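Hey, can you fold this one?
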Amino acid sequence: MRLVLTALALTLALPVAAVPTLSWAASFDCNRARAPDEKAICANTALNDKDVKMSVLYEVNKRTLAMGGRGVLIDAQQQWLHDRRSCGANRACLNRAYDRRLGELERGLERIYRNGPF
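Sure. Predicted structure:
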């Protein structure tokens, strides 16, 4: 199941990842990065890749939830962004924040697969 979810996320992220420049992370423009967390993400390929995956998983989850669930997801994402910002440029903290959020979003996709034959 996890392999299928990862394959789905990577397939959806491929057009974003194929962009020849790293001026864009998935969720923000690196050319406009001002906060230490954003600058650290733009400067580190592994963090940028996690940002791409997080953004794709977030969008897939958001599009598959009913209105009430969508609001909860949006609120959780806003809280996560606030928490990520508190990491500043600390890469270890940013990696932990992304790993936690990616796990939450992957569990959301597992809900999709449990609810139907695809």
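The radius of gyration is 14 Å. Let me know if you want another pass with a different chain boundary.
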